[in-house]
Amino acid sequence: MSETHEELAGIVDLFGALTPTELERALSELAFKQGEETNAAALSGAVETAIEEYYLVEYDPTDADGNGADDLSAGDLGDDDHLLVVGPVAFPTLPENAEDLPHILDVPERSVDREVVGRQVASRLLTDAARAVNDDDADRIDHLLDVSYDLEVWAPVEVDDVQARLHDALEE
């Protein structure tokens, strides 16, 4: 199975949001349907990279401000403490046979509060931007600048301060 970031986002998009454990189960089921072996380490690495690059983002429905998704409670997450949601840079694509996953997995369709998840992602972006500027990592700074523009379209948040900091770092 070829897990591109867009395909991972496509699987998550089928459900609205998935816990990491649910995504792992979905990927295992998909590999089985495609007649392939499941390589847990490779799958985990692909998910981690998708999160790092903002194709998927982590969402805490028990956000401190009390504004989570209307249809979620802490008990819905099982042993996981967060959900994975399609991120601002993703163009979700379904891998072969993925359309069957909602019928195979016992996972509810979920909706998330885009404003809340947007604030959570903006906070993460600020941290990632500070790290990239500190490390003088021009490639990461450039990527995060692109993410910042996508984020403002994706969620009702403004990250002008982050964009200014990243622009300044690129000009130095």
Write a compact overview of the structure shown.
The chain is mainly α and 172 residues long.
Would you give an account of this structure?
InterPro entries: DUF7109. Strands 1-2 form a two-stranded antiparallel ribbon. The radius of gyration is 17 Å and the shape is globular. It is built from 7 helices and 2 strands; from the N terminus they run αααββαααα. The protein folds into 2 domains: 100 residues, Arc Repressor Mutant, subunit A, CATH 1.10.10; 58 residues, no CATH class. By secondary structure, the protein is mostly helical.
Gap from first CA to last CA: 43 Å
Helical content band: 40-55%
- Helix-strand topology string: HHHEEHHHH
Tally of domains: 2
InterPro entries: DUF7109
Pfam family, one: DUF7109
Secondary-structure map:
Blueprint: H1 5-15, H2 20-33, H3 40-52, E1 56-59, E2 83-86, H4 101-104, H5 114-134, H6 138-154, H7 160-171
Antiparallel strand pairs: 1-2
Pfam family, one: DUF7109
InterPro entries: DUF7109
Pick out its properties:
single chain; 172 residues; mainly alpha; Arc Repressor Mutant, subunit A; 2 domains; two-stranded antiparallel sheet; 5% strand; globular; DUF7109
